[in-house]
Amino acid sequence: MTEEIRSKYQAVIGLEVHAQMLTKSKAYSSDVNEFGATPNSNVSVVTLGHPGTLPKMNKRTIEFAIRMGIACESDITEIQSFDRKNYFYPDLPKGYQITQDRTPICENGRVYIKDDNDQDKAIRITRIHMEEDAGKSIHDVDVHDTLVDLNRAGIPLIEIVSEPDLRSSHEAYNYLTEVRKLVRYLEICDGNMEESSLRCDANISVMLKGSKEYGRRVEVKNMNSMRNVQKAIEFEINRHIELIEKGEIVAQETRSFDALNGSTISMRSKEAANDYRFFPEPDLLPLTVDQKQIDAIKAEMPALPRDLFLKYTQKLGLSEYDAYNITDNKDLALFYEEIIAETKNHKAAANWLMGDIKSYLNHNGLEVADFPISPKTIAELIAIIDEGKISSTVASQKVFPALIEDASKSPLKIAESMNLIQDSDEDSLQEYINEVIANNSAEVERYKNGEKQLTGFFMGQLMKVSKGKADPKAANQLMRSALDNL
Ligand code: ADP
Ligand code: MG
Predict the structure, then answer these.
(1) Average pLDDT over residues 163-188
(2) 281 Cβ neighbours under 8 A, 6+ residues apart
(3) What is the pLDDT of residues 375-393, one digit of tens each?
C-alpha cells in the first residue's frame, strides 16, 4: 500500500484489558490463586459450581479494583451488583461467569499517555469491572484429546475498557505500557503478558481522515505480548484500508492473532455472537462502597508513576527522558526516592542510577532489589565528588566497583584506603605545577609566544605527575596564573 493511500485514513482503536488480580485466593471461593500449580489441584466444589455451593466475594479483589479506579481518576460506584454471563465451554465448569454487567465498580476514568507527537493525551476509561477467569483448555499436550486445567477458573480479574480514543498502534502500545505500569505500581497484578496475567483485546476500525463517523470495527484476541498487540493492530489497519479501497465492506467480527505469521484470522462473526443471557447473580448480595472506605484505600496507595514523573520534571529539574526511565520501574523509582532523601544533587543521583547502577544491573541480569549498594551510600559517593575529594571518573572507575565488592565500607574510607583523594591543597598543587613547568621548557616557550591552547597539554602533564590526584578545578586556575606570570 502506498503512503498516499494510507495517509487518507485514520485508525480508531479501543482496548479491553483483563488483569488477573494478585490475591491469595480466588474471586468467589477460598481456592488458592497461583500460577503453575499441578493441574486441577486448586479446584473445590465452589469453583466447579456443584449444586448447593455458594460463591463468596473476595474483599481483596474489591480493594484492588478500587485502587485501579483511583489511579485512573474514576468514579467509584456506590452500590454494585453482580451478573451472570452464560455460555457453554469445557473450561467454564459453572456454565456462567460472575461479572458486573450493569454496575461496574469504576466508571469515567482516564489514563495519560504520550501521543504520536510525544504530547500528553488522556485516554478515557469507560469502565472497570470485576469478574472471574475461566479455566484453560490445553490443545497441544495430548495428541488425541484437549485437556482442561481448572486451576485458573475463578481467579479474580478486572477488565479495563477504554473509549475508542487511541489513533495508532503506537498509541495503543503506549496505553498498554501505562496500564501495565499502573497495575504493577499498585501491586494488584504482575502484568506478565507472556503468562497471560495481563491480556488485551483490541478493537480496531478505520475511517477517512476528517470523518465524523467511525468505521466498522473488528475485535482481535490472543496477543501475548505488547509487540504483538502493536503488530496485530498494524495488520488490521492495513487489511481494512485494502478492503475499503477495493470497495468492499469490513465484516464486523472477532479475529485471532497468529504470532507465527504476524496476521489475523477470523474466529466468529458478530451475527453469530453469543447471546450471553445476562441476569442478576442471585447468590451474591449487592455490594456497597462508601467514601470512608475509598479514602482509606487512597491513604494506603503508593506514589503513582505519573505523580513521580511530574515531580521529577517540574520540581527536581530532571529531563523528561530521565524522569520517564526512572519511573518506568517502581523499584527503580523507589531507589531514586531513597537516594534523593539523602542528597540535594538530584541530577547526579539520576545520572548514577541511569548510568553505572543500571548498567551494572543489566550486565549481571539483576533486579534493583539485588543491588548491593544502599541508596545512602550512593548519596555519600555523590557528596565526596561534590566536595572535590574525588573526581567523577575515579568515582565511577575505582570507588563504585570497590563498593560493589564490599558495600559495607563508606565511599570516603574506600577512596582513602585506595589513595584516591584529590589534592586541592595549594602548596602541593604548586609543587606539581613547578615540576610540569621545569620538565616542559619548549612548550612553556610556545605558550609565552601566544599558544594559549597549550593549557590542556599542561593540565594533562599535571594529572600525570600527580598520578591523577590533582583536583582539576583548583589546579587549572593555579596553572594559568603560574604560566601567565612567568
Ligand atoms: P463489546 O461488548 O462488543 O466488546 P463494547 O461496547 O464493550 O462492545 O466495546 C468494546 C471496545 O470497542 C471498547 O474498548 C470501545 O472503545 C471499542 N470500540 C467501540 N467502537 C469502536 C470503533 N468504531 N472502532 C474501534 N474501537 C471501537
Ligand atoms: Mg469486546
Answers:
(1) 98
(2) 55, 81, 82, 83, 84, 98
(3) 999 999 999 999 989 988 8
The set of cell numbers assigned to 326 is 526512572
pTM: 0.89
Give bridge partners of residue 125 from the DSSP assignment.
Answer: 109, 162
In short, whether 254's Cβ falls inside 6 Å of ligand 1 is no
Protein residue with least CA distance to atom 20, ligand 1: 164
pLDDT digits (tens, 9 = 90+) for 250-292: 999 999 999 999 999 999 887 666 689 999 999 999 999 999 9
Tell the CATH topology of 426-484. Answer: Arc Repressor Mutant, subunit A (1.10.10)
Quickly tell me which residue has 485516554 as its cell.
Answer: 123
CA atoms within 13 A on the CB side of 334: 11
Ligand nearest to the CA of 220: 2
> Relative to the CA of 216, which ligand 1 atom is closest?
23
Q: Are 170 and 230 in contact (CB under 8 A)?
A: yes
CB contact at 8 A, 112 and 120: yes
Query: If you search the block for the grid coordinates 503478558, which residue do you land on?
Result: 193
**Measured distance CA(228)–CA(234) in Å, rounded:** 10
What beta strand segments (E) does 35-171 contain?
75-76, 79-80, 83-86, 96-99, 106-114, 120-132, 136-138, 147-149, 156-162
Q: Is residue 215 within 8 Å of 205, Cβ to Cβ?
A: yes
Strand partners, 20: 157
Structural contact between residues 459 and 476, judged by C-beta atoms closer than 8 angstroms: yes
Domain layout of the chain by residue ranges = 3-292, 313-417, 426-484
Going by the DSSP 8-state scheme, the letter that residue 264 receives in this structure is E
> How many angstroms separate the CA atoms of 98 and 104, rounded?
12
> Which ligand is in closest contact with the Cα of 164?
1
Using DSSP's 3-state secondary structure scheme, residue 409 falls into coil
Mean pLDDT of the region 131-143: 94
What is the per-residue pLDDT across 211-247, written as a single tens digit (0 to 9) for each?
A: 999 999 999 998 999 999 999 999 999 999 999 999 9
How many angstroms separate the alpha carbon of residue 218 from the centre of ligand 2? 9
Q: How far apart are CA 107 and CA 130, in angstroms?
A: 12
Q: Rounded CA gap, 401 and 320, in Å?
A: 29
